[in-house]
Amino acid sequence: MKLVVKNLKKNFEKKEVLKDINFEFEKGKIYGLLGRNGAGKTTFFNCLNEDIDINEGEFYIEDNGSKRKMEAEDIGYVLSTPNVPEFLTAREFLKFFIDINKKRIKNEKTIDEYFDFMKIEEEDRDRLLKDYSHGMKNKMQMLVNIIANPNVLLLDEPLTSFDVVVAEEMKQMLREIKKDHIIIFSTHIMELALDLCDEIVILNKGVLEEVDKNNLDNEQFKNKIIEALKEE
Amino acid sequence: MIETFITSFKLQNTYRTNSIIYSLKQLPLIKRILPNSLYKNRGLKIFASIISILWEIINIFIGKILYILLMIFMALTWYHTNQADTFIHLFVFLTLAGGVLNTYMLNPTKDKYYAIILMNIDARKYGLSNYYYQLIKLVVGFLPFTILFGMIASVPLWIQIALPFFALAIKLIVMNYSIYDFKKTNKASNENIPTKFVWGFVAVCLVLAYGLPAINIVINQSIFLCVFIISIILGIYSLVKIHNFKDYRRMYKQVLTESNVYMQERKAGTQLIKDTSLKQIELDENYTSNKSGFAYFHDLFVKRHSKILTKAVKKQSVVILGLIIAMIIGISVNDTFKSKTNEILMVYLPYFVFIMYCINRSSSVTQAMFMNCDHSMLTYRIYRTPKVILGIFKERLKTLIKINLLPAVLMGGGLALLLYLSGGTDNPLNYAILFISIIAMSIFFSVHYLVMYYLLQPYNVSTEMKSSTYKVVQGLTYIVCWYMIQIQMPIFSFGIATIVFCIAYCLISLFSAYKYAPKTFKLRV
User: Fold this and answer.
1) What does the pLDDT look like over A96-133, one tens digit per residue?
2) How far lies A113's CA from each of A147, A153, B333, B450, in Å?
3) Which has the least CB within 10 A, B113, B196, B328, B422?
4) Which of B48-52, B243-247, B431-435 has the lowest mean pLDDT?
């Protein structure tokens, strides 16, 4: 399965943020999306999530050679600022999410098993989400997106609010689930990208391009990425 | 201090200018023509800042003229007391009430928040210089009109001139008291949420202001002279104290919290706030739900927000009930009242469109839905699938209609009862039509607001209102309802027309919501 983006364009008035995006994201890989501040990473995600309309181009899922529209169920989007319904407890939120995704969830687990999987402590499970910390909300957001089991997971700076232990756990978790998903992971932290991602993709001047590692060692590869990002 | 003042004035002017340009860009059609680079267009900037300065100048006078004209001058005609003394009397007591309600200094405005909290400008210099500016504006604004209207009411010239300075002194005294209170308790209060004590004081002042002249008591000029001298002395003392107070920063830190400042914003209607009342979530172990899916989700939402959702409706119901009982009593004791009531009820049904518009809670309920729920949930793509959107829409529609139905039933039932008691009607069908058309109006507004919300979802992720179309629709709704006041029509024809219209509108709009909401119901970017 592939996510294919073809000639995608997005302008805000006269400013061309995404000029001509052409890319194929494959299942089983984690793509590290790097770009400078304001390069349009979030805009790109918003386009894929249909939060905003695109000006030109298309994107679709290609499965066994046949092409189909990317549906809401195909996509999970974890925002850098977590958004959770504050009036629910963590358990209620999960219950709701499992209810509405019932058909899609393969081998459904119990709610507590999901909490265990995400390492959310027993005593926190029945608290209102409004009293959760930033990092905890982020964990919940990540968890419901993973439960829904979407084919494409968009992660916008997802690990920055986690403490080092949790961040390590999350990385491990992403590696575990990546074989069934297309994961696109935007970040500013180069080490994280190099450590976690299988491919590095750079968004610069409205265009997406892959940076080939070839036979470079990590240091050389890093320099190559920085050079690519600096290009004016 | 003057430098700080100039800086703050420039700052204020800059964002006012930008707001003017921003509002221009919000207008439908025009926004397509105007580019973003507008913000740096010099000519336009100058134009906008001239408007902003003009506005500032007009602002000095317009409030004051309206205040003196409406609150004092027009009221003079009600009383048989000496005109000049009544003028002074009203001014003095209203000034006392105004003094505690608005100190300028403790009003949590956006410009203070920007300057002191965000830009870290010296709080004392900023606070004082702007305070003095406000006080000067107060005197300058009042003076022409105390002289003008004072002359018409034959107030002596020295009092015409003294009155603005009296107002000034009262402001100073109240502010000094606030500082004294802050020093003692370490608590600075947001003056836009007055305490019960303040409300009590204001109520007493209002009663004394408008009540005493009715029983032919007004303060005379020698009393005013005494009051004036005392307040000037206290005012000067207060001014020294205020000027020498050092701890403005700490005080402002308490007043200029985000929720206080955004509450101010809400009044202007430009942004929603997450202030405590709207964000109130009640967690109670008993609030659970045995439903599933979206019914479960919505059920918990309603239960946990029951206070925000139903508080106003309950109050309304009590008031409506009280009014109807009062009317019934009126009808049974007074025959002219009885026949008048009957006459009015028979032809003023259109008026109730406006009343139903005013009491309908749907607009604020949808706001609460957005702020406490959709604001976070809409970021989940799965929440925007047609199945989920329409499922929750259905649940919400039921709730919204239910919430608004209680006052509507009371109102409809009460009106029908009043019609019967006040002499009845030839056509018994009128009772049913009266009742049903009121219910129909209530359902109409519930459907209208919810459908508009789903079709135009006007807010972005930081709860700012982004859709000018939504504003236009809101405005149109208001105008149409307002227009209804002018119409007089018999219950029968207007009632039938209303019922038919409401049913047709509900069907069409529900149909469009089902068709288009899955596309339109998303966060604005």
Assistant:
1) 988 888 887 877 889 999 998 888 899 999 888 888 98
2) 11, 21, 72, 38
3) B196
4) B48-52
Number of Cβ within 10 Å of residue B365's Cβ equals 26
- The SS3 assignment for A10 reads strand
Amino acid found at B343: E
- Name every residue whose Cβ is closer than 8 Å to that of residue B70 and which is 6 or more positions away in sequence: none
Q: Where are the beta strands (DSSP E) in B42-104?
A: none
Chain A CB contacts of B523 under 8 Å are 51
User: For residues B128 and B243, is the Cβ–Cβ distance under 8 A?
Assistant: yes
Residues 6+ apart with CB under 8 A from A72: B381, B382, B384, B385
Which phi-psi region, left, alpha or beta, contains residue B179 (left: φ > 0; alpha: ψ -120 to 50)? alpha
Three-state SS at B28: coil
Kindly list the domain boundaries of chain B, sorted by start residue: 60-268, 308-520
Question: Rounded to the nearest 5 degrees, what angle is found at the Cα of B278, between the Cα atoms of B274 and B281?
Answer: 105
CA distance A126 to B285: 10
pLDDT, one tens digit per residue, over B101-121 is 888 888 888 888 888 888 888
Using DSSP, state whether A183 is helix, strand or coil. strand
Total Cβ atoms within 10 A of residue B50: 11
Q: Which residues does residue A5 pair with via DSSP β-bridges, in sequence order? A: A23, A59
How sure is the predictor about B44, in pLDDT bands with cuts at 50, 70 and 90? confident
ipTM beyond cut 0.85: no
Q: What was the pLDDT predicted at B133?
A: 92
Structure tokens at B22: 């921003």
Q: Which of chain B's residues have a Cβ under 8 Å away from the Cβ of A51? A: 522-523, 525
Q: How many CA atoms lie within 13 A of A133 on its CB side?
A: 7
A108 touches chain B (CB under 8 A): no
Q: Does the distance separating the beta carbons of B525 and A52 come in below 8 Å?
A: yes
Q: pLDDT per residue over B489-523, tens digit each? A: 888 888 999 999 999 999 998 899 888 988 888 88
Q: What token pair was written down for A156?
A: 């916008």
Q: Strand A182-186 and strand A30-35: pairing?
A: parallel
Interface contact flag, B385 A73, Cβ < 8 Å: yes
Bridge partner list, B459: B465
d(CA B198, CA B101): 8
Indicate the DSSP class of residue B465.
B
Phi, psi of B233 (to 5 degrees): -65, -50
Q: Which helix (H) or strand (E) holds A30?
A: strand A30-35
B387: closest chain A residue by CA: A100
Kindly determine whether residue A87 and residue B373, on different chains, have CB atoms separated by under 8 Å: yes
Taking CA–CA distances from B284, the nearest residue in chain A reads A128
pLDDT digits (tens, 9 = 90+) for A151-208: 999 998 888 878 888 888 889 989 988 898 999 999 888 888 888 899 999 998 889 9
Which residues are registered as beta bridge partners of A35? A203
**Predicted pLDDT at B372:** 83
Helix (H, G, I), strand (E, B) or coil at A204: strand
What does the pLDDT look like over B269-279, one tens digit per residue? 334 444 444 45
Q: Taking the C-alpha atoms of B121, B127, B128 and B130 in order, what is their torsion angle to the nearest 10 degrees?
A: 100
Among A180, A133, A157, CA closest to A77: A157
- In DSSP terms, B488 is beta-bridged to none
Give the amino acid at B410: L
Query: What are the angstrom distances between the C-alpha of B89 and each of A37, A213, B199, B216?
Result: 63, 86, 20, 11
User: d(Cα B90, Cα B78) in Å, to the nearest integer?
Assistant: 12
Cβ contact (<8 Å) for B381 and A50? yes
In chain A, what are the domains? Answer: 2-83+152-230 (3.40.50.300)
- Name the closest residue on chain B to residue A137, using Cα atoms: B376
Please give the structure tokens belonging to residue A228: 């690519």
